[in-house]
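User: For a benchmark we're assembling, each entry needs the component sequences followed by a predicted structure for the full assembly. Here are entry 17's components. Please fill in the structure.
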Amino acid sequence: MVVEAVASEAAAARKHTEVAVGILVRHDGALLLSTRPPGKPYAGYWEFPGGKLEVGETVEQALRRELVEELGVAIGPAEVWKVTEHDYPHALVRLHWCKVHAWTGEFEMREGQAMAWQQLPLDVSPVLPGAYPVLQWLSEERGIAFVPPESDS
Ligand SMILES: Nc1nc2c([nH]c(=O)n2[C@@H]2O[C@H](COP(=O)(O)OP(=O)(O)OP(=O)(O)O)[C@@H](O)[C@H]2O)c(=O)[nH]1
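Assistant: Structure for entry 17:
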C-alpha cells in the first residue's frame, strides 16, 4: 500500500521536458538527421536537430538557438507542425516538431555529431524511438510505408 502510494506520487510528479525539434527539408525533399553527441543518453542514435526549451523561451526561439549552437545555421520561419510525447527511462519528453524550409549559413557540426541528408525511407539507424511517429507521418505524406524497428521501441 505505502509502496504503491509512493510510486503513484512519483509518476504524477514526473514533469514533461519540453523539446523543440526541427525537420529541415531541403529543396529535393531530403531531411536532415544528425547523431546524438557522446555523453548524452542514446549517444550515437540518429535524431532530428533540436533540444530542450530554456525558461521563458518559445518553441521557435529554442529551435533557433539550438540550431545555431549545434549546426551553425540561422533558420527562417518555424511553426509547430505536430506535438508528440515519449517516455524514456531518463525523461518524459514532449516534442514540438517544426518543419523548416529556409536557413542561412554553412552546416558545421559544432558538437562532434555526424549529419546526413536523408530521403525516406531512411538509410541510417538506429533512430531515436521518440522520432518514430513523425517518421510515420512524413512517410504517409509521401506515400511510403514506415515500419518502426521493434527492438528499439
Ligand atoms: N533533438 C531531438 N531530440 C529528440 C528527438 N526524439 C526524441 O525523442 N528526442 C528526445 O528529446 C530530448 C532532447 O534533449 P537533448 O538532450 O537533445 O537536448 P539539449 O541539446 O537541450 O541537451 P542538454 O542541453 O541537456 O545537453 C532527449 O530526451 C531526446 O531523447 C529528435 O528527433 N531530436
